[in-house]
Amino acid sequence: MARLYSNLIGWGHYAPDNIVTNNDLAKFVDTSDEWIQSRSGIKQRHIAEEHDLTSTMSSEAARRAMKQAGVEAEDVDFLIVATSSPDYMTPPVSSQVQDQLGLTCGAMTTLVGCTGFVYGLVTADQFIQTGAFKTIIVVGAELISRNLDWEDRTTCVLFGDGAGAVVLQATETPCGMRSFELGSEGASHEAIIAYCPGTAEPITHERIDARRQYLRMNGREVFKFATTTMGASLKRVLEKAQLTPDSVDLFIPHQANARIIEYAVKQMNLPPEKVVVNVDRYGNTSAASVPIALSEALSEGRAKPGDTLALVAFGAGLTWASTIFDLGPPVAKSPKRAQLKETVISEEGIVEGLIA
Ligand code: UT7
User: Which of 2, 99, 159, 268 has its CA 20 to 30 A from that of 92?
Assistant: First the structure.
């Protein structure tokens, strides 16, 4: 059998309409626009409204990615949803998304903090390479605002809600994942943690009163971890792919803090036009951050077929994940996607495929 590669054929993202600026926050939190911008680069974030759920935001992002790819529900062989804020602890939110999208395939949720989408992308790529599945949707979604302590200024000003999705499809044309790294430093698991509910700390009135249900973060520890891990991991995946930093056409890092991104960019000596930064507009959307940044960059035409992307994420666990991913050829927007070889189209089509 010919070797199979993952072609990224569709992308989409969704963020709630409700935009909250730093000055809006400063009305009820002891903070300032100056502090938030200078420490994190964040200017505003989207915060979910009552009707938004992680499942509905995931489904909307996935619908947009499917439409963009020209993929119908029956074409999809597998669904992965990465999130730390599922609608419920049980069932897996991926099953709700699968239902909302009208898919009939299997679905799973990856709970790997901000790193979850890249973990999901690597998992999907493995299924494609083995020939197990042809078409896979990978979503990263987070409704983190409902898990934040709005009285804790050290966390609540940093995060935002949203979802991003991609459609991967098997192709025999070389593209997709050249290398990856999935990492975990579990000894630091308390650096980002929501203690309750969970089997370690089942819900009690005392725990709720102690606000154990909200996300806590040791910002300085995570900052140190991120600045030492991001650039180093990116270097390793480049080496594995036998590439140098100049071969990267677009660097799409996890959007937690503009200063962390700047640090990695300096280490790799990448020019600003090759780096995607949208943390100023979205804040840290955790598992949704890389797919939203990826989807925005592709929609804006910042990358074209054949370009080499570098995706790097870090987060709760503490975990990290990186990949070097080549964009493949566009495919004709036909529901008859099964005949993969016949769907590769012309150069004009390539451009159309990217900006449609
Ligand atoms: O995706 C998950 C990954 N998470 C991250 O990547 C977060 C990584 N960490 C960071 O981005 C940074 O550590 C923060 C943005 C969280 C904080 O920046 P920092 O420069 O490390 O600040 P700090 O924690 O050292 O705090 C400095 C001061 C403290 O006051 P004192 O003790 O020096 O008097 C804080 O109490 O800033 C104070 N502070 C605030 N002041 C105004 C903390 N939060 C706020 C706030 N507004 N919201």
Answer: 159
